[in-house]
Every structure is written in C-alpha cells, then in structure tokens.
Amino acid sequence: SLKMASDSPESLMTLCTDYCLRNLEGTLCYLLDNETLRLHPDIFLPSEICDKLVNEYVELVKTDSIFEPHESFFTLFSDPRSTRLARIHLREHIVQDQDLEAIRKQDLIELYLTNCEKLTAKSLQTLVSFSHTLISLSLFGCCNIFYEEENPGGCEDDCLVNPTRQVLVKDFTFEGFSRLRILNLGRLIEGVNVETLLRPLASLAALDLSGIQLNDVGFLTQWKDSLVSLVLYNMDLSEEHIQVIAQLRKLRHLDISRDHLSSYYKFKLTRRVLNLFVENLVNLTSLDISGHTMLENCTIPSMEEKMGQTSIEPAKSSIAPFRGLKRPLQFLGLFETSLCRLTHIPAYKVSGDKNEEQVLNAIEAYTEHRPEITSRAINLLFDIARIERCSQLLRALQLVITALKCHKDDKNIQVTGSAALFYLTNSEYRMEQSVKLRRQVIQVVLNGMESYQEVTVQRNCCLTLCNFSIPEELEFQYRRVNELLLNILNQSRQDESIQRIAVHLCNALVCQVDNDHKEAVGKMGFVMTMLKLIQKKLADKTCDQVMEFSWSALWNITDETPDNCEMFLNYSGMKLFLECLKEFPEKQELHRNMLGLLGNVAEVKELRPQLMTSQFISVFSNLLESKADGIEVSYNACGVLSHIMFDGPEAWGIYEPHREEVVKRMWAAIQSWDINSRRNINYRSFEPILRLLPQGISPVSQHWATWALYNLVSVYPDKYCPLLIKEGGIPLLKDMIKMASARQETKEMAR
C-alpha cells in the first residue's frame, strides 16, 4: 500500500488534489469563526476523490515540512451525504481519536492505521461503527489502541501527579465485523488475547501477526478453508507452529521470516520442515524464510548441480526441498540466509544479499513494515552503487526515496539512505534521471537535514546536494535550502567537513541568481553568518577554504544588492577586511574575493561616504600596485576608487592621501595592465560600469570603465558584446568620444 516514488508526470487528479489541499480555504472550504474549516454547502464529492484527498493529506503532513496540518481536517468528511470515504490509509501521529470519531458515519471498506501511536481504546469503539462494511483493516504498530485511560476514584493529591492510568481493554472482539477478510495486527501490544479477539471472524483470508509471541496457534485452523495469506514475522516458532501451518492448505503466501539480530532464537529451519510445506501447501506462490539459520544441509552438493545458465525450474533447484514444487514461486524471501547465494533458485523474484536484483527486491518487500531490515538492505545497495555500477538505477532511486519518505524519523534509514542517494545521483547517472525524480531526491534530502542534526546525515545530505546544478536545480526550494544551510553554519560546535561543504553550497546558491533571491537570503541572516565564520577563522589565524568561500559568498550576495552591502558595513565588515588583509598578506584568492565585495559596496552611492576614511583610501591605493591573482586585485581596488572619485572633489573629505596623488596612482595602475588579460570575474550587468562613462568630473573613472569594457568584449566577445549592446553601451561610448574632458587614450579605446 506504500505510495512509490514515480518518474512519470503527475496525473491531473494528483495535481488538483495537491492544489486543493494546499489551498483548502480558497477551494473546497471556508473558515467558520476564523478557526474551523467547513465544506462549502454546494460541494458533493465521491469516494474516488475523497479517498485521494485524505491519503494525500496524510502524505503531505508526513513528508512536506512547509505544509500546515489542519486541526479540523477530518471533520470535512463527517457527512456521507456530501463526502464519501471508502479506502483510507492513515499513518503515525497525524491521526488521533477525534479524527476517526469525525468520520465514523462513513461506510469504510478499507482502513489502514499504520504506527498510529496516538490512538487509544476510544478508537476501538469507533471501529465498531465501520464493522458492517469493513473488508480490510490494519492496526499495524498502533501500540496504544488497546489502552484506555482510567480515572482513579477519590482524587487526592495523586491526581496531579498521575491523573490517568493506562488500562488494557480485555473485552473488545471483532464481533459483528461480518465482512472482514484482511487483518493486520502486527506489533500488537502484549496481554491482548489474540484468539478471543479473532474468534468471531467467520472467514479470514489474510492475517498478519508480525512481532506477536503466541505459544499456541492452533486456533488458526478455524480458517483452514479460507486463509490464503499468513505473516508470522519475528514470531518464535516451534514444532507445534509448523504442524498447524501445514494444515492451512489454501495458503498462497506464507511469511515466517525473522530479523536475525532481534533476539536469541531457538528454532532452526530444517529440510524436513521445508519438505512439509512443499508437500502440504500445494497452492504456495510466495514464501519468506529470511533471517533463518538452516539446521542441516538443504542444498544440493555442487557437483550434482546442473551446470549452465541459472535456472528457475524446480527440477534443477539448488535447494533440495524445492525440487518438489509444481512450478517456480512468484516470490522467495531469502534475505540474510545462506541460500540466496546458490545458483539455481526456483522463484521469479528472490530477496537476498547476493546481487543488486535481490537487494532491490528486499528493499521493495520490507520497506513499509520492517525498517530494521530495510536499512540493512539499503546499506548493501550503497556498497553496490559505490563499488560497482547500478544497472537498475531508476528503480534503486525510487525505492530509496520511498524508504526515506516513509521512515523520516528512523535514524538508521536516514543515514544509509542519504549515503546511497549520494552515489545514486552523481554525475555518471545524471543522464538517466528526469527533473521530477531529481526534485524528489532534493525533497527527501532536505527532509533529512531538517529532522536530523546528526553529523553523518547532515554530511551525506550536503554532499548529495553537491551533485546538483546549483542554483538552477535547487531554485524550486530556494528559501528552504538556504535556511537549512545557514542553520548548520550557525551551530556553535561544527564539524569541519560539513562546514566546508555548507559554505561552498551557500556560495553557489547566491551566485548568478536574481536580486530578489539575494535580498531574501540576506534577510535570513546570510551576511551575519558569513562574517561570524570569518571572525572565527581569523581568531584561529587560519585562511582555509571556509574563509575564502565565505568572502566569495559575500561578494556574490552583495552584487547589485544595496541592502546586503549595507548589512556588511553595519556588521563591522570593513574591520574584518582590514584584519584579514593584515593577517594574510600573501593570500591572493582571499584578496580578490574581498576586493570584489568592496567593489559592490562602492557601487552604492549612499554607502560610499563610509569608505571615505584615510585608512581605507590608503589601503585601496596601496592595493593598486598588487600583482595578486593577475590583475584582479589591482583592478578591483581601482574600481572601488573610480566610484569614489565619481562623487567629485567635494566628497573627498580627507587630507591624507591627496585626491590628485591617488588619481595619479590609478592612471599608472591601469596603464600597467595587459589589455588581453583573461579574467577571473563574471558580470551579469554592465550598468555599474556604464554609469561612469557620461561624466566629466573624474576622467580616470571614465578611463577605468572604458578599459574594463574593452578588455571584456575583446577577450570574451561572445558573452559580452551582446550584453554591451543590450544595455545601451554603444550610444554612451559614442557620446563620450565627443566629450572635451575625456582623455585622448580613453577616446581611442572607446572607438
């Protein structure tokens, strides 16, 4: 019943359901008294739509952190005259007693309650209202549903300490559930008498008693003419159990598998037991004996094995008792047994640990109800993806995504699943993956980062994100990704490797994106976070990748974004700039990043007065002579000064150094650069450069701007010629050539 991750486009039904659930007020409902959702009176929906609404709602609450659950959601389905429910699947803490109570008038045919730990015995009473229509029921993992709260009689002080006591309900049975055929009581609480509970059921077809310990299962024979499926996963078996099972001759599916790590286990499977099953259960198409130890040799000696290609013909079976099968089994569970490594296994589908196919079959079969087994199977898949090459990539990805969504709070699955995703999404598999599938990967990765502060999960998730094209592929979750990464970087104790990857991702996310994105991220505290990281590194006197990436990220996020430039100044960014310059005089990459950022700050007219101090101007002037990173540091220092000069002599509010002296040094610097320099810089717009052309107040600024344009369009014509034309640069250059104040060499270059 698990919803598999899929690769085909969503159906119109799914899209509409999703839209309505995210906009209940604007579509199906209105708000009564500003709090209770009510269905519009003219809405009538059949069960095909209502079932989908309820099941998708549960899925959204579970897997989409942005989706807000509604207290009164289930009351929308309280009246069968306007909304019909038939088949619903509810999970975990999402559902409470009052929710089931709200839909008690519905004629439910199928009700799956999986791990609904908040349900109590009140819900048992509600189940009775579905008794006349229910065909299929699962109470798997509903560990409190047989408990009711008993209020103690005389309420003394004890009331405050322990107002309610949990009492086991002993008198509930399935009396009156006349149509019930399929029942899952997996992980039922100890103390409930299963035999009494089930006795009233006339003809059960499928029964799941996973994880329940019963010494006597003789009562099962009352359904020997109807039972086609029996699951006794992790039940301690004995000879008596085997004799009872052998009498259930109608069985098509039998699962007596176990988790071999769970507890000491006396029972061993023998050749005789398997022979007994093959002889008596003639309709068997599916058998699961995973996790069992074989007491004696059930295998055919290898010299007697028919050689040649592997065969699923029972006659050639390497497992001796299965030579008696009339036809191959549809499914045979052999996970964590020695049998799965044999040559000839008479089944179309085998779960095991021998190869990719068996491992994927195991993940598929056990994900929903056996996370403890699934996490070990995913671990095997991780090894296959890492060491060999996955041949069923699409299936592998879909299964891992499904497992991660289903078990959002299971640490083992989150650790192994996120690690497997890293290898399944790397570049060699890229071509085989659709946009939709890659988006599903991103969603589960972000879910993992949200739910787990655990180092391994965080690292795996960050590494997996590095397999995507950033920012393009993350654009649809832009805010959320940034919030999660900033959250990681703001933690007081940090893992070095995660810090490095997270800063790298943050930098990539603000590179080449629209200004509104940058402003939004700035408001989340991005600038402050980066400055704090820089501060820490300075204190440790280390200039590593984190330091360089942090400055690079600040350079990117301040590009044409005045609000972020202002934040940089307000949070003492200039002080850190000077300290870094002093502490790391030889770090060229660092200098380039810092000056690129200051170039962005200098483009904002209102902020330039803050750069107008003797100390800053001296530093920028001295950097004009820097040979760091080719011309980049000198070029950026000159850019900063060009914008300051553009404000005219009256804005020069300092005595030292003199304005003329700085201008002279700027001319000298520009003349020293090679006009054919290849560049380590990326312009999205020429607007800040172009505004320095039509003015006569600072010829040197005009010259720097013309040099910049000339260099970029001659070295990278394909990229920058169209940009220059698009942004109206040609008429500005033509006008400048006519200006008397412009220097001759500037005009030559402009021509």
UniProtKB/TrEMBL annotation:
InterPro entries (alphabetical): ARM-like (IPR011989), ARM-type_fold (IPR016024), Armadillo (IPR000225), LRR_dom_sf (IPR032675), LRR_Zer-1 (IPR056845), ZER1-like_C (IPR055142), Zyg-11_UBL_adapter (IPR051341)
GO CC list: Cul2-RING ubiquitin ligase complex
Limits of the Protein zer-1 homolog-like C-terminal domain: 404-750
Source domain of life: Eukaryota
Protein keywords: Acetylation, Leucine-rich repeat, Repeat, Ubl conjugation pathway
One Pfam family named in its UniProt record: ZER1-like_2nd
SMART domains xref list: ARM
Domain Zer-1-like leucine-rich repeats region per the UniProt entry, residue ranges: 196-337
Family, similarity comment: Belongs to the zyg-11 family.
Quaternary structure annotation from Swiss-Prot or TrEMBL: Interacts with the ELOC-ELOB/Elongin BC complex. Part of an E3 ubiquitin ligase complex including ZER1, CUL2 and Elongin BC.
Protein name as it appears in the record: Protein zer-1 homolog
Taxonomic placement: Eukaryota, Metazoa, Chordata, Craniata, Vertebrata
